[in-house]
Amino acid sequence: MYDDVLFEQRLNEFKPEPLITPIETNAEVLEIPMVKEDSNNIDLAKANYLNVLDNEEIKKASEDLIREYGVGTCGPRAFYGTTDIHLELEECLAKFLHMEESIVYSYGFVAISSSIAAYCKKSDIIFVDEHANFPIHQGLIAAKSKVVKFAHNDPKDLKRKLLQVAENEKRKSRKFLIIEGISWATGKLCPLPDFIEVAEEFKMRVFLEESYSFGVFGATGRGLTEYFSIDPTRIDMIFGTLEGAIGSIGGFCAGSNLTIEHQRLSGSGYIFSASLPTYLVKVVLKSLELIGDKPKQLAELAKTFHQFLEECKFHVESHPEAPFKLITATPKSDEIKIYQHCKENGVHFIHNDNGLMINLNINLLQEKDKLDRIYRVLKGASELIN
Q: Which helix (H) or strand (E) holds 372?
């Protein structure tokens, strides 16, 4: 009791000098505007496909973990950064994906780029989709391999490029194929069975990036291997972020025991980064536990929403079952008209170089009034350009 009082007293008396001298400035403080969901505003910019961000069970489980483990390990996985919760998640992910083993990174971006760089070397040839996402491109830069791009989601063009390389190849090189389950740039679904057929014909290693198909596609959310009824062991690596459907932070990679063990020794993002905070690990575990039939519900909402957009004569790039809808318009000024009209009427989503991106949430199935309002506003926006 005395020690506690003394500790509190010394803590209150501790007034350290600042490490640096604060710089006085009259510059205006800029704030990033946030959309606060209320009766006037609907947030379709946030990626919360399975509505796990506000789940009370997940919040309580995370709070309990913080009280027991703290907010972070303050060290890489190999240096005081691994807890039993990390190992539990890796075992759970491997079992969920029907792979031998998995590895968890503290940041989704480096999970993708580090996984590529850990295996692909300067003497290798990597075949990659022309619309591959930024983390994949960073992995290619780190790997320093020869890169060959093929037309978006086109297995036939991949085969043509492979034959061209074979004709000009003086010595045999290892070949890798990197594809995205759902393209972040276009929202289109990868024709995985056709790509695997080509890859197996040419004896290529296949890396599948599943940031926007993991937790969404397939009856239980296992991704494209479940959606297409493909044996996951035909894929060398499945990797992606945990920041889409699962509602946490971090990334994962799953594959054979040998594949994952190699990353523990050479995955830069794994070796040099502090491990994923334990309470965020628990978010993933709890989300997977509660996933149930949510992927099926989301697929139905996505198809209904897609059909509505097409009836409004929007040009929808994304796949009918994609968890986000990507709308493009010509001229580009029409995209601004749509965006501004919806914003003024309290429906908020993303406008970027790819087009207008609307993130879905299965909770809209229960909130009919909110969904009807979204439909009314989008219908009004379509009438401005058609």
A: helix 368-385
Q: Cα(99)–Cα(255) distance, rounded to whole angstroms?
A: 6
Whether 307 and 350 share a structural domain: yes
56-77 mean pLDDT: 91
Alpha carbons 322 and 299: distance in angstroms, whole number: 8
d(Cα 88, Cα 90) in Å, to the nearest integer? 6
Residue 171: the pLDDT is 81
Reported as half-sphere exposure (CB side, CA atoms, 13 A), residue 348 has a value of 14
Confidence of residue 22 (pLDDT cuts 50, 70, 90): low
* Across 63-82, average pLDDT: 90
Q: For residue range 175-194, list pLDDT tens digits in order.
A: 999 999 999 999 999 999 99
Q: Which pairing describes strands 237-241 and 315-316: parallel, antiparallel, or unpaired?
A: unpaired
Residue 84 placed within a domain:
yes
Query: Is the CA virtual torsion 345, 350, 355, 357 positive or negative?
Result: negative
CATH of the domain at 283: 3.40.640.10
CATH number at residue 335: 3.90.1150.10
251: β partners: 105, 241
Q: CB burial class (10 A; 0-12, 13-18, 19+) of residue 359?
A: middle
Give this prediction's pTM: 0.88
User: What span, in angstroms and rounded, lies between the C-alpha atoms of 265 and 226?
Assistant: 30
Q: Which of 304, 305, 310 shows the shortest CA–CA distance to 382?
A: 310
Same domain, 186 and 271: yes
CA 222 to chain centre: 14
Look at strands 175-180 and 347-348 and give their pairing.
unpaired
Tally of domains within the chain: 2
Residue type, 194: D
Print the domain residue range for 230: 57-289
Tokens of residue 104, six digits: 């968890």
The predicted-structure confidence for 107-132, as pLDDT tens digits, reads as follows 999 999 999 999 999 999 999 999 99
Closest CA to 47 of 183, 297, 251, 245: 245
Comparison of pLDDT for 80 and 105, the residue scoring more: 105
User: One-letter amino acid identity for 317?
Assistant: E
* Burial class (CB within 10 angstroms; exposed 0-12, middle 13-18, buried 19+) of 308: middle
pLDDT 10s digits, 213-222:
999 999 999 9
